Amino acid sequence: MLHPEALLLCSSANEDNTENDIADMGLKLANEIQTFINETCPSNFIGRMSFIGYSLGGLIIRACLPHLEQYADKMFTFFSLSSPHLGYMYNASKIIEAGIWFLKKWKKSQSLTQLSLADAQNAEESFIFKLSQSKGLNWFKNVAFVSSWQDQYAPFESARVETSKEALADSS
Q: What's the whole-model pTM score?
């Protein structure tokens, strides 16, 4: 009610296929956003852009940002809820860890392989590490990473982009 001129896009580009490569899902989201802007915004005028992502959606948004560089000066708020920004290397729940292993094997989930940093021999060659180096988050005026101890899926520290005790103790 405060901003009746605000336009909202509830993305559906990746709804049915979240097992794919996160980079590809980011490109699909960027294309969906660009189409929305072209079809909805008069003269492509945009005051500011904000993003809210939950779980894998937060990573898909981050993968989409480099494709939207022409709007870098319009980025306002990035809000992430329980998104595993640092992946699933140190998951507190053995049940979730077993489920991820099963889904990676059974469904051949490329996104879970990327989230567990198993897509490369060296962590610095993994998708998650490369995503951490990509441009986009620095464009936002506000960035919030939200997590909860009760969330059994996204590791608490990963969602908050903090180094866990397990990571500090890991010599590899």
A: 0.85
